[in-house]
């Protein structure tokens, strides 16, 4: 994507709409946050590319999603990288390896006012500790990845599964005024449906268009399930 793409995105979205963007894997997966390997240079190039969003007040969180192979043994590289981050952005770090389940990472993120990504993920990932409420900055970031490792990007949460998150959101909101949450993108709009359902569950009203979209998607999946049940019979 080019800078022109972000200019168009900024211009074509509502005034209060914001995009959270994920740092390229060149920074996190290839250069693995190593400053001496050019990771910061690559990040600065990316921030320049998305600058139209920041200038238009359309930039939410800059997400630094670490690869699953990135362990706590790379703590030093991580700290060196975070220490050099340009000011003026809402950063969040998503750990994806169980070895980060220790106090050190949270203290590091608090020091730099960087959000830890709170996640809901499949049990096989062994990342349940990331579902706990931990606030490390003046903004928070939540990602719902689904509960099925085999269909990670094709998961529809039930309301019962989302219910425990209502109190978690309330708890987080006491500590930080900005809470951003995202469901995994899905070709069949499951993320859209879950987002609208959860918005209602936490006491926010849906606009007429949102209500219409929610009902249409719900009807689609109810009809689809009825057909599948009939086939099984």
Contiguous runs where pLDDT drops below 50 for at least 5 residues: none
Number of domains: 1
CATH topology: TIM Barrel
Give the rounded overall mean pLDDT. Answer: 94
- Name the quaternary structure: single chain
Overall morphology: globular
Strand order of the largest sheet: 1-2-3-4-5-6
CATH superfamily: Protein of unknown function UPF0759
Order of helices and strands: HEHHHEHEHEEHHEHH
Helix content: 40-55%
Number of alpha- plus pi-helical segments: 10
Strand content: 5-15%
CATH first level: which class?
Alpha Beta
Gyration radius, in Å: 19 Å
Largest sheet: 6 strands, parallel
Q: Could you say which structural class the secondary elements and strand pairing correspond to?
A: alpha/beta
Between the first and last Cα atoms, what is the distance in angstroms? 48 Å
Tell me the CATH architecture. Answer: Alpha-Beta Barrel
Beta strand count = 6
Describe, in plain words, how this protein is organized in 3D.
With 233 residues, the protein is α/β, with parallel strands linked by helices. The chain has a single domain, classed as Protein of unknown function UPF0759 (TIM Barrel). It has ten helices and six strands. It has helices at residues 3-12, 25-30, 39-49, 51-55, 75-83, 103-111, 159-162, 164-175, 190-201, 208-232; strands at 19-22, 59-65, 90-94, 115-120, 139-144, 178-183. Strands 1-2-3-4-5-6 form a six-stranded parallel beta sheet. Helix 6 (103-111) links the parallel strand 3 and strand 4 (115-120). Helix 9 (190-201) packs across helix 10 (208-232). The longest helix has 25 residues, at 208-232. The chain starts with a helix and ends with a helix. 26% of the residues are buried. The mean pLDDT is 94.
